[in-house]
Design a protein that fits this description.
The structure holds 2 protein chains of 2 kinds.
Chain A lengths: L1 H20 L2 H27 E6 L10 E9 L5 E12 L4 E11 L4 E10 L3 E13 L6 E14 L7 E3 L12 E19 L11 H7 L3 E9 L3 E5 L11 H19 L4 E8 L3 E7 L2 H11 L12 H8 L6 E6 L6 H5 L3 E7 L10 E5 L4 H4 L2 E3 L1
Parallel strand pairs in A: 8-17, 11-12, 11-14, 14-15, 15-16
Antiparallel strand pairs in A: 1-2, 2-5, 3-4, 3-6, 6-7, 9-10, 12-13
Chain B lengths: L1 E2 L3 E5 L7 H22 L9 H15 L7 H17 L1 H23 L15 H25 L5 H16 L7 H18 L9 H25 L3 H21 L23 E7 L5 E8 L1 E2 L4 E2 L3 H5 L2 H9 L7 H9 L6 E7 L9 E2 L27 E6 L7 H14 L2 H20 L5 H10 L13 H15 L1 E2 L12 H9 L1 E2 L1 H14 L4 E9 L1 H6 L5 E5 L3 E9 L3 E5 L8 H4 L23 H39 L4 H19 L12 H8 L1 H19 L10 H17 L2 H10 L4
Parallel strand pairs in B: 10-11
Antiparallel strand pairs in B: 1-2, 3-7, 3-13, 4-8, 4-12, 5-6, 7-9, 12-14, 14-15
Helix pairs in contact in B: 1-2, 1-5, 1-6, 1-7, 1-8, 2-3, 2-5, 4-5, 5-6, 7-8, 8-21, 12-13, 12-14, 15-17, 16-18, 22-24, 22-25, 23-24, 24-25
The chains are: A alpha/beta, B alpha+beta.
Pfam family, one (chain B): Transglut_core
Protein name (chain B): Transglutaminase-like superfamily protein
InterPro entries (chain B): Bact_TGase-like, Papain-like_cys_pep_sf, Transglutaminase-like
């Protein structure tokens, strides 16, 4: 504003001087008072559209370590840029931490500039670097041209894993040929009976166990069992995370979930991993058979959760499972959801709660831990 | 730097750098301010060279800029040098101050037309120019430091620079220092200031490339503006004069006039009829009532549409003369009284008191023959008498030794006799009067061309002597006779278009007018005949009216007493009024013509206004355009060459030795092409025989080694080592030297500026 006022005063003064002196130099000053800002604005418009930015980041970013990145800027125009400001936004999508770093620079015609910066994250997650807008000022600071940038880079900060021993219990039969049968559920697999009972009207003739019927002189039918190829569902309910939850909560949960999954994978137990809070989808379910499968899904798990207002993602998970059953379910969250009974219908649930007290668990098996002691609390768990 | 709970995010380096850019920006600002101050204050009159001062100022621009820590020693040395300098030259500072102030006063005299004092210069063995230079170094250094702080310091430092710039603008608007080329440099400096203040808080402040590019961009725009201004500003000067006149007229009206002015005060552009109102303009009280002319506005230069005073710059040429005259007690307004004193014929004085009521208060209405008036020793000339104070003066009293010096011929004769008798008083008086007469004859005989032609037509039948000299009395007779014959008195004459020459139209077409018309015509006719004359407006109390007055009784003069007349210079006596307007002429006055006394000087040569032919002006404009184009091309060529060579250098210094060697080898082949060794279709080794023939064995061996290195770099897995860059670089240097040696001047220019090879 002050600069605009000064320019106006300069032009007005030059006009007065020219009116009263009439010299060519006075007219030069008057023309310059109009032409210089105009040319500066035009030059800024030209430069704003042709400044190129690239963001250079290291590939591997360890948790808790300071690393350096760089923004490289190139001016492809013959006009100088005296001041340009870009705002570099850094967001940890897992912990919802964001920071903004304004960077002001100048660059000569056809020049190159590099702006190094350092960053460090104490928590795991997915770091998103964004440069949304570049604001280029003209030479005299009269106007500021905003040009949208589409510089967007992501880097993963892998969680720090710790050794866990996971013991699975329950009525499932031991695995053979990668198939396990849960005799406690009724299903569609006729090869193994789920239960034997008397005939009721409406049962299919296929269900009649003729041998037993003849023996017992009444109609006996068998119900098919449900074939299960996964022994376990690990469900990380990210949607239930409170809005004001401190970043160490999702960080602890992430490390607990990944360490748990690693322990199960190392035991060569086939299982599924589900995590809620995915935008537009709700919940994702992935089967894990090997380490490669696990490493492949970690980035997605550490992606930021959509804002569900603290509502649990259990219903999304059940919908995503599409009727599939699991003998055991490991539920990771920071609180017990009211919909937990729905999940209990899918399988036997064991709660892994970060920060809650034991009263919240109710009748369900529960492992409580906190960011301070999770490594000790979860080193040996049974579900 | 930002630091959330677990997220740490900051820049790696603090802002800094760009010291060279700041120095360039502050230097340009300093040069602009210093150049304008130099021109505006008229410091070229001191005689000292501005170049050493500019160098000192730029040095202290550097010292005052925000420099890296390693330059602290330089800043300390600069401060120490300044201190030592001040002590060493302290004996010359007073003399330098005096010389500088004398130069500034000289400039003020030229612009304001007033006498300014002069300091005595005792230069202690040094020339005044050296003393001035030694003194001016101190404010120059201060200005350099100020410029540096304005660019890189806190906002508060903008205030002094802003005040300086505002002062320059004010000097420009008041025409004390009309803009010249230096203002372009100031505009460049202010633009750099604006740009660098914007970049102050950048993470990386701009260095030399940014500073030069901003300066170049601004300079190009200023150059284009200069060309446009040169093309457009055809009538700028005329319009500015008109604007100045309008502004002065408005200001004069606001300050001094409560009603519509009765008298035009020299501006005839909208001259209407003489329609005086009955409102009292002045109240005059005389001790001895008599016919009186009260002089108000005096016109010295005829402009074609009226009268103005002498230009201040013209008056300034006579500053020394009037200083001397005033020191001797000689004032033109009191010349009549001085003559009487010198001749011992002073009579009783007559007190005249004037109270201004509705008339303009901007002038002091003074009668002729003043004695002991409050004259201003700083005033150059004696034409008019501006009133003091913001709203002018309303009451004042004079002592006169005769309101209308009707006996000036008698006094002239007495003076001649006294001079011949060698009377000391008369001789002393004549010494001053001779000098004053020189001023009068230099300035009050000018007649513009158009007016001269009009008068020439009127006097076409007059048999004037070839020498142009005509006696004072003959001139009076001629003017009175011709005017009374060819024009008639009419208080409602036809209006004269302000864009036409007033006199030509009056004498040639309308031939009707009142006192203003008659006075103008008479003044110019007298000048034509070699008698210095001036146009006067004021108030006239006729003898008949004076007879009705009682001594000491105030008489109210209404607007009907407003009058214009001509005053003519009688050698030895001074300016005396000459009545030419018919209703006011008195037969007694007509008898006041005597023989003798040369009142005429040679008829001055006609003014020939020269205008540069239009063709010459067009050629000048085209030359400017051509120069600008050449300058732009040259700048482009320099920048292009620099960019190409820089890019090439970066290719040769590539971090990967293999890439660097390959690039250098490619460039070597290209250079050989310029030398005349054409690249064949096929192996590069095929160039060897021609190379050997042209340059010899050694270069051929070097070339072979370069090609071998290039092949290793391109095709082998191991590439080349860093140490193998040396040989191709040497070979390139040699090839460039050969090119320079073997090329003609034209080829060198082409290789240097077009191909950018050498």
């Amino acid at each position: 504003m002050a600069r605009t006022v000064v320019c106006i005063l300069w032009a007005a003064g030059a006009a007065v001087v020219y009116v009263f002196t009439g010299t060519t130099a006075a007219l030069l000053i008057l023309c310059a008072a109009l032409a210089l800002p105009l040319c500066a604005v035009l030059a800024a418009l030209l430069a704003a559209g042709r400044i190129m930015l690239t963001l250079e980041l290291p590939g591997n970013i360890p948790k808790g370590e300071t690393v350096q990145g760089e923004i490289r800027i190139r001016n492809r125009t013959p006009v100088p840029v005296v001041r340009a400001v870009l705002h570099l936004e850094l967001e940890n999508t897992l912990t919802q931490e964001t920071e903004l770093l304004p960077l002001a620079f100048s660059i000569p015609p056809f020049g190159k500039e590099s702006l190094p910066f350092t960053f460090r994250s104490a928590y795991c997650g997915r770091l998103c670097f964004k440069c949304g807008v570049l604001t280029v000022s003209d030479t005299f600071g009269l106007i500021h041209i905003r040009r949208p940038l589409h510089v967007d880079k992501k880097r993963l900060i892998t969680p720090e894993l710790f050794p866990m021993r996971v013991r699975l219990t329950g009525s499932e039969t031991p695995l053979w040929d990668e198939v396990s049968i849960n005799l406690s559920r009724k299903g569609q697999d006729w090869s193994e009976p789920f239960q034997i009972r008397d005939y009721v009207e409406g049962d299919s003739l296929k269900q009649i166990h003729w041998k037993l019927s003849q023996k017992l002189e009444r109609y006996i039918v068998t119900d098919p069992s449900q074939t299960l190829d996964r022994a376990l569902l690990v469900f990380w309910d990210r949607s239930a995370l409170a809005k004001d939850a401190p970043p160490r909560i999702p960080d602890t949960l992430a490390e607990a979930v990944v360490s748990f999954c690693l322990a199960v994978t190392q035991e060569e137990i086939p299982y599924s991993v589900a995590w809620s809070g995915i935008r537009d989808v709700g919940c994702a379910v992935r089967d894990v058979d090997s380490m490669d499968d696990l490493y492949g899904i970690i980035p997605g798990m550490l992606e930021g959760a959509s804002d569900a207002g603290g509502m649990s993602g259990i219903s999304d998970c059940i919908r995503a499972l599409d009727g599939k059953q699991y003998p055991l379910i490991a539920y990771f969250s920071d609180r017990v959801s009211t919909e937990i009974a729905g999940l209990a219908a899918v399988g036997r649930v064991t709660l892994f709660l970060c920060g809650e007290d034991s009263d919240a668990c109710g009748d369900l098996a529960c492992h409580l831990f906190s960011p301070a002691d999770y490594r000790q609390s979860l080193c040996d768990v049974t579900i | 730097m930002t630091n959330a709970d677990g997220l740490f995010f900051c820049v790696s380096e603090e802002s800094g750098g760009g010291a060279a850019g700041r120095v360039i920006a502050s230097s340009l600002l300093f040069l602009g301010l210093a150049a304008c101050a130099w021109g505006g204050l008229g410091l070229e009159g001191t005689g000292c060279s501005p170049l050493p001062l500019a160098a000192a100022g730029i040095l202290y621009c550097a010292a005052g800029s925000r420099l890296p820590r390693r330059a602290l020693a330089f800043q300390a040395a600069a401060a120490a040098a300044l201190l030592i300098y001040t002590v060493a030259v302290s004996q010359f500072i007073i003399s330098g101050w005096n010389v500088t102030m004398n130069g500034i006063f000289s400039m003020l005299e030229t612009h304001l037309g007033y006498i300014f004092p002069r300091y005595e210069v005792m230069a202690a063995g040094q020339s005044p120019a050296v003393c001035a230079g030694l003194f001016l170094a101190l404010p120059t250094v201060l200005l350099g430091l100020l410029s540096a702080r304005a660019v890189s310091g806190a906002r508060l430092w903008l205030l002094p620079a802003g005040l300086l710039a505002a002062a320059l603008w004010a000097m420009g608007a008041t025409t004390l220092y009309p803009p010249d080329w230096r203002w372009g440099l100031l505009a460049l400096g202010l633009a750099m200031l604006g740009a660098w203040r914007l970049s102050r808080k950048n993470l990386r402040s701009g260095g030399i490339p940014l500073a030069l590019s901003v300066a170049a961009q601004t300079g190009i725009v200023l150059l284009l503006c200069a060309l446009l201004a040169e093309l457009w500003n055809v009538s700028g000067g005329a319009n500015a004069l008109e604007a100045q006149r309008a502004a002065k007229s408005w200001l004069h009206h606001v300050r001094y006039e409560e009603t519509e002015p009765t008298l035009p005060e020299g501006d005839f552009r909208n001259l209407g009829d003489f329609a005086p109102e009955a409102t009292t303009a002045l109240t005059v009280t005389m001790e001895k009532p008599q016919e009186t002319y009260l002089r108000g506005y005096v016109g010295e230069v005829y402009t074609g549409s009226g009268w103005t005073g002498l230009e201040p710059s013209r008056k300034a040429e006579y500053a020394t003369l009037f200083s001397w005259l005033h020191a001797r007690g000689f004032y033109g307004q009191e010349q009549y009284a001085l003559l009487n004193q010198a001749l011992g014929t002073s009579g009783k004085s007559n007190a005249v008191s004037i109270r201004v009521q509705s008339a303009c208060t901007g002038w002091r209405y003074a009668p002729y023959g003043l004695d002991g008036a409050e004259t201003d020793p700083r005033q150059i000339g004696d034409a008019d008498w501006a009133a003091r104070g913001v709203r002018g003066e309303r009451e004042y009293t004079y002592e006169t030794s005769g309101a209308v010096p009707g006996d000036y011929e008698r006094l002239s004769d007495l003076l001649t006799a006294a001079r011949k008798a060698g009377a000391a008083a008369a001789t002393d008086y004549l010494a001053g009067e001779n000098a004053y007469r020189e001023f009068v004859y230099d300035n009050y005989l000018d007649v513009p061309v158009q007016a001269r032609e009009a008068i020439g037509k009127v006097f076409s039948g007059l048999d004037l002597p070839k020498s142009g000299e005509i006696s004072f009395s003959d001139a009076q007779l001629v003017v009175r006779a011709y005017l009374s014959n060819i024009v008639s008195y009419n208080e409602t004459p036809p209006a004269i278009d302000g864009n036409r020459d007033f006199l030509s139209v009056f004498l040639g077409e309308t031939k009707e007018g009142y006192s203003i018309h008659y006075a103008t015509a008479a003044a110019l006719m007298f000048r034509y005949l070699g008698v210095p004359a001036r146009y006067v407006e004021g108030w006239y109390i006729p003898g008949a009216t004076a007879l009705e007055m009682s001594p000491g009784e105030p008489i109210a003069l209404d607007q009907s007493f407003a009058h214009a007349w001509v005053e003519i210079y009688r050698d030895g006596v001074g300016f005396v009024p000459f009545e030419i307007t018919p209703p006011y002429t008195d037969p007694m006055q007509q008898n006041n013509q005597r023989q003798g006394g040369s009142g005429g000087a040679e008829i001055p040569p006609s003014e020939e206004e020269t205008h540069p032919p239009a063709l010459w002006r067009l050629a000048l404009i085209l030359l400017w355009v051509l120069l600008a184009l050449i300058a732009a091309l040259a700048l482009f060529a320099v920048i292009r060459r620099y960019a190409k060579r820089r890019r090439r250098g970066q290719m040769f210094e590539d971090p990967d030795p293999s890439t660097a060697v390959s690039n250098m080898a490619t460039w070597a082949v290209r250079l050989l092409g310029y030398l005349g060794v054409a690249r064949p279709n096929g192996s590069l080794y095929l160039m060897l025989p021609e190379l050997e023939r042209l340059l010899g064995d050694e270069p051929a061996d070097q070339y072979r080694a370069v090609i071998e290195a290039q092949r290793r770099a391109v095709f082998s897995r191991g590439g080349v080592s860093d140490g193998e860059r040396h040989q191709p670089r040497q070979f390139l240097t040699r090839l460039e030297a050969e090119l320079k040696h073997r090329s003609t001047f034209g080829e060198k220019l082409r290789l240097r500026w077009i191909a950018c090879v050498i």
